Structure formats: structure tokens, C-alpha cells
């Protein structure tokens, strides 16, 4: 996949699962994962913050788009 857009269930566990699946789906160095509802739903925000701080090293490049509820990660 070149693009994975995550806007499913907003609970912490679902976001972690969807994020793990998304990492398996992306294959190209130009791939991107986009999450919706960051900063809106507690489960989404907590999960993404946790992945950024303590998750797989690939999540260290996770970014929030200021003024939106979107977060993204480019594969490298």
C-alpha cells in the first residue's frame, strides 16, 4: 500500500491494532499512514502519543498537522 488512512474505532486498543496492521500494509519507501481524530478522541490521542514515545522506532517520525485532527507517518 502507498497510503493507509485510519479512521475506524476510536478506542485505544483499536488504534494500536489498526496502527500495527498499517505498518504491515505499507511496503513502499514513499508510503504514508494518516490517522484521523487525533486530539479529538482520547483513545486515538493516547495511543498515538504512546506509540510516539514508547512504540516501534518507526513511530518517532509521527507528526501532527497543526490546526487539524490529522496525524501522519511517512515510511522510511
Strand content: 15-25%
Output the structural class: alpha+beta
- Name the shape in a single word: globular
Percent in helix: 25-40%
Low confidence ranges: none
Q: Using DSSP, what is the number of strands?
A: 4
Order of helices and strands: EHEHEE
Largest sheet: 4 strands, mixed
Mean pLDDT: 94
How many H/I helices? 2
Strand numbers in spatial order across the main sheet: 1-2-4-3
Domain count: the total is 1
What is Rg? 11 Å
- Through-space gap between termini: 14 Å
Structure, described:
- The chain is of the alpha+beta class and 76 residues long.
- The chain has one domain.
- Helices cover 36% and strands 21% of the residues.
- It has two helices and four strands, in the order βαβαββ.
- A four-stranded mixed beta sheet has the order 1-2-4-3, with helices on one face.
- Strand 1 (3-6), helix 1 (12-25) and strand 2 (32-36) form a beta-alpha-beta unit.
